[in-house]
Design a protein that fits this description.
Its cofactor is heme. With 156 residues, this protein is α+β, with helices and mostly antiparallel strands. It is 33% helix and 12% strand.
Length: 156
């Protein structure tokens, strides 16, 4: 996730520059990166339907199994203004990347601390950091539960 975060922020220089200009954006930027990452937890969550429910004009019958993708919820225009755009100052940011309630990830606090710490250190120590290849040339690593990139070549 650290590599994906760096790539997302460095792929559009204005994102990185806004964080350099205002380090107070680190915390909300981490939350936005978590919301925006389309392949985090890409396997979805299976849910058994116990009573008929209507979703988007379609009735799903009791006894059915559905696959709930958090990425779809995190891009819901009803929940997030300009959901398809990355907004590093988005607050509140009630994304579902780590689940919710009894189904929330136990490691989410550690993940957030790691991402905030790394991002803060990169901004402070290597403000001139940039991708060494075009963002479109970054290769995704397949077969991981949370996705990833094969490598993130950078220079400064």
């Amino acid at each position: 996730m650290i590599g994906k975060m760096a790539a997302m922020l460095l792929s559009r220089r204005e994102r990185w520059e806004s964080l350099l200009a205002d380090p107070a954006l680190v915390d909300p930027a981490v939350e936005e990166v978590l919301r925006f990452d389309a392949n985090l937890g890409s396997t979805g969550m299976h849910r058994h339907i116990t009573e008929p429910v209507e979703i988007g004009g379609t009735t799903i019958e009791a006894g059915s199994t559905v696959l709930a993708l958090m990425q779809a919820a995190n891009r819901d225009e009803d929940a997030f203004t300009d959901a398809a755009e990355m907004d590093l100052a988005r607050t509140p940011n009630p994304h579902l990347t780590f689940g919710a309630g009894p189904h929330s990830c136990l490691g989410q606090s550690l993940a957030r601390v790691e991402l905030r710490t790394v991002l803060g250190a990169l901004l402070e120590r290597v403000p001139g950091l940039e991708l060494a290849v075009p963002a479109d040339d970054l290769r995704r690593r397949e077969g991981l539960l949370v996705g990833g990139l094969e490598e993130v070549p950078v220079r400064w």
